Amino acid sequence: MDNVVMETSVGMQESKQNSKDTQLNQEQTLQSKSLSSCLQELKDHLSPVETLGYRLPLKSLSALSLIEKEQLTFGSLQKQACLGKALILGGAFVDVTLLLDHIPPVGGDSYAQELNVGVGGCAINVANIVRDLGIDHKIKVPLGNGPYAKLSHDQLLQDGYGESDFIIVPQSPYDCAYCLCMIDKDGERTFVAVPGIENHMQKEWLSDLAIEDYDLIYFVGFDLTDDNGLVYLNEIKERKKDNAVIFFDAGARVNFIKPEAFELLLSLNPIIHLNRMELELITKTNNIKAGLEHLSTLTSAPVILSLDIDGAVVSYQGHYYHFPVVPQKVIDATGAGDSQSAGIIAALLKGATLEQAMYLGNTLASYCIKQVSARLSLPSDFSY
């Protein structure tokens, strides 16, 4: 009798799992159809990209007639001096990258190959690229106590940063964070993060930072969750220069930002950079056009939506601009969004229009997905 019950139970579990799989496939199919129709609807409202003339409001731009006369082409950006300074805020993560055939289901098991162990985190990934592109910038990174803090400290010193770039808390009970990055055979990534000191920011840790000196301030949603958001955002709102631009990378935990912190963020009129999932988390709709319309009413700056193989869309002042890309094989998608952000920031700080900046961002993202690790290594012959 027990055997009969066991077999029946197993059969019911298998039936339930098959039902769940069928439902998931149906939901994915519906989502895909919805996405296609949304993209098509959006394409009917696209404006020519050459009409996207947004630039950073840098005072020095008005004195540089060279930019207006030459239109600052993509190939000339490398020669152009950096016209502004960037402040990049955020935590350091130690990334452990694993390659799997597939991500196992709940209760499942899977062998993996360790591909890389390195220091990352969105802010560090962006800083690594803007440094290589010759952008005047400063980072501010909290470091705790433990092996991950030591790894992060040593890597950042090797990258050329100094003690003034670190927030060192000698008696902290927290280490730096670490992230398990699982890459499947299609190059898609799934993250499991263990937070650290970056989730315990204190106002006094930013007291020596001259926030008013910077033309662009970057941070990511991961660092604005829980109480952190109000610590960062209150300091920025009170101390930034009047025309400083906020560049906000939403991140997959954007829905964990407290409502009052998110409202404060939007009052700064940030450039918002996000992907499809993050757009849905913020706007509660999987309709791309409706989501962008809603988000664009909350900030007067551009909203940049990454669409992976479909490129990217910029929503600005009631218009939509599509920047397609050439589809290619993905080795590891980790850090592609960070690379895109870094390219956009670098180009804007050299006086480019957002149209030109999007091309650089897409180019760097295309390099990133062809390598393992979120830390982009530019080719030795790279020029922009």
Task: Describe what you observe in this structure.
This protein is an alpha/beta fold and about 375 residues long. The protein has ten helices and 13 strands. The protein has a nine-stranded mixed sheet with strand order 5-4-1-8-9-10-11-12-13, sandwiched between helices. Helix 3 crosses helix 9, helix 7 crosses helix 8 and helix 9 packs antiparallel against helix 10.
How are the secondary structure elements laid out?
Elements: H1 2-43, H2 65-70, E1 86-89, E2 93-99, E3 113-120, H3 122-132, E4 137-143, H4 147-158, E5 166-168, E6 177-183, E7 189-194, E8 216-220, H5 228-239, E9 245-249, H6 259-267, E10 271-275, H7 276-283, H8 288-296, E11 303-306, E12 312-316, E13 319-323, H9 336-349, H10 354-368
Parallel strand pairs: 1-4, 1-8, 2-6, 4-5, 8-9, 9-10, 10-11
Antiparallel strand pairs: 2-3, 6-7, 11-12, 12-13
Concise synopsis of the structure shown:
With 384 residues, the protein is an alpha/beta fold. The chain has helices spanning 2-43, 65-70, 122-132, 147-158, 228-239, 259-267, 276-283, 288-296, 336-349, 354-368; strands at 86-89, 93-99, 113-120, 137-143, 166-168, 177-183, 189-194, 216-220, 245-249, 271-275, 303-306, 312-316, 319-323. It is built from ten helices and 13 strands.
